[in-house]
Design brief:
Low-confidence stretches of chain A: none
Strand content of chain A: 15-25%
Largest sheet of chain A: 7 strands, mixed
Structural class of chain A: alpha+beta
Order of helices and strands of chain A: EHHHEEHEHEEEHEEEHEHHEH
Distance between the termini of chain A: 16 Å
Radius of gyration of chain A: 20 Å
Number of helices of chain A: 10
Number of strands of chain A: 12
Oligomer: homodimer
Mean pLDDT of chain A: 97
């Protein structure tokens, strides 16, 4: 299993990505840094394993590396971007950059994006704002593929529709980065490939009956919204992601139209300074975190962790020990590199 | 069990409330209409049952009916209100009215409120915006009383911290109005009073062990965040409610300070017209709702309902059949009316 530093992994990814026809050097850099940041956070499913898929999609025209992001509508506090199916990370980063700039001047901003190719790990864009002292929320729908039924239903109509919310602190941000389904689809695929059952409360089969068989998802079954017995709450939030990220932006929702597979985004940024001095806000957040941590731990729990903290700890570890890439992923990445004539 | 029309119930509530010393007539009207709307939605726990409690709190100084709402900070798209502990519904309505007015001019708005007495049913304020074609979100923390532990913890640090999100449609709005705890505290109290057990996944006892005994909540136990096995998601959202509604606004979070019991609010309004023509947006939402409803129902489910729909159906029924008030609640309300010299 090869092991890389973050800088090495970014350089490898960049070298390959910039060989995908029409990819601009700066875009390859943005995507490569994004893939590495996913590995650092421990989300290998959003790392360089995606490179062969991106290459394939570029050949099929689902990704249009030559295109650039356009601003279709704009007011002082809002904008609507058309990604024109260029690199999704580039579209998402631009949406966040514009939202931050608008929030600097107007304290709050909302920027939508449509025709947006796969953006990767949503939370990493929210962190861009928190790193500069802003509060960020990203409502990111998936369209073109569905996995989740409406509450009470037995046919998929929604994607796993994540929400990411980042809040700055005196140290590392709070990052709530969650799918509105009980788990991401990748976990079902892994269980299926390993021949394992999935826990109760994850899946319904094609008739709407509970099942522990991961294969059921790929045979007309559905992934449940999060919430367990009150799963209507997770369904409601998943709907809101579609309404903000898909309907408001025009990206589209679910498989309503013949839209290409992609993400619809609404990025929102709030400047705490509209409400309170920046340093006072950070102190309030830090005091609140200390107050939460002061709760007695439940049996078997070593420590109370804040949202995002497991990922930051993984990042510290991987910056120290390097990022290991499994042999099969590495083989596929090398194959793609060879096909593109990239030297690693 | 007496039965009233909505207009009768509002008039009864208004007559009593305006006798609570220093209460302005227009404030009594706002609160009375709010209490009736809670009954119409089927949420009797937020209806006239609250009147004796409000009277008690006014006498104790927790509610300051003489005070008025002040704007402490303001920018074109944001404001921070100080409710000065006047009627909570008045503060919440004013926050929403200001946010709507700002969104009319600037497309997006965020208005916070602190020193805010009990606001009642949060969703009803979100509906004010949706009724005028805007998207609204309300992050409403509770402070001064806590029920929910941080994920992994066994000591309460957060209130049940609801979020309400309303989106306009061509017909009745979508309304997601949920606590970030698995259920509201009232359900535990009802089970305790009836001597019933609560379902698995609702409660931990004071040692952090799962329990079905509702009394455990009032003996150092905690209510779980929503999400079941992925309850860290509900906890993360509950934290966000505290950070936006409590820390950003200065209302306070949990029982960190010696703050009075109240609600901290962040009200956000988005004008869809910043992104797309208003009628196109409504059509997209209606098409999306029809698409969700077209899913096959799961076994035992008669019909797929949208968030907020059960409450709208209840409203239709109660407008037709009247609102019944249980005898004990009616007795308490009459007692309060007599104490205040209100004639019903």
């Amino acid at each position: 299993m090869p092991n890389f530093t973050a800088a090495q992994l970014t350089e490898i990814a960049e070298r390959i990505l910039c060989r995908i026809p029409h990819t601009r050097g700066e875009d390859a850099r943005v995507v490569a840094e994004h893939l590495t940041s996913a590995h650092l956070a421990g989300h290998d499913s959003h790392g360089i394993i995606r490179i062969p898929q991106y290459h394939q999609h570029a050949r099929e025209g689902r990704l249009n590396a030559a295109a650039t992001v356009e601003i279709e509508r704009e007011t002082p506090g809002t904008a609507l971007l058309n990604g024109n199916w260029t690199w999704g990370q580039v579209t998402a980063k631009q949406a966040m950059d514009i939202a931050i700039e608008k929030a600097r001047h107007h304290h709050i901003a909302a920027v939508g994006a449509r025709q947006c190719y796969h953006v990767g790990r949503v939370g990493s864009f929210a962190l861009l704002a928190a790193g500069r002292g802003f509060i960020a929320r990203i409502w990111c729908n998936g369209h073109g593929i569905v996995r989740v039924a409406p509450w009470g239903g037995a046919e998929a109509r929604l994607a796993t529709n994540p929400v990411a919310i980042a809040v700055p602190t005196g140290g590392r941000p709070i990052l709530v980065d969650i799918t509105t389904s009980v788990v991401a689809e990748g976990k079902i695929r892994v269980a299926k490939n390993k021949g394992e059952k999935v826990p109760d409360g994850w899946l319904l089969d094609k008739d709407g009956a509970p099942t522990n068989d991961p294969a059921a998802l790929y045979d007309g079954g559905t992934l449940l919204p999060f919430g367990g017995p009150v799963g209507y709450k997770g369904f409601g939030l998943g709907m809101v992601v579609d309404l903000l990220g898909g309907a408001l932006t025009g990206a589209g929702c679910g498989v309503m139209s013949k839209e290409k597979i992609g993400n619809g985004l609404l990025v929102e940024v709030v400047d705490p300074a509209a409400f309170v001095e920046r340093d006072v806000f950070l102190r309030r957040v830090d005091d609140y975190v200390a107050y939460l941590r002061s709760a007695k731990a439940a049996p078997g729990v070593k420590e109370i962790l804040m949202p995002g903290e497991p990922e930051f700890r993984m990042e510290d570890q991987r910056r120290r020990d390097g990022i290991s890439v499994d042999d099969e992923t590495w083989r596929q990445v090398c194959e793609t590199a060879a096909a593109l004539g990239a030297t690693l």
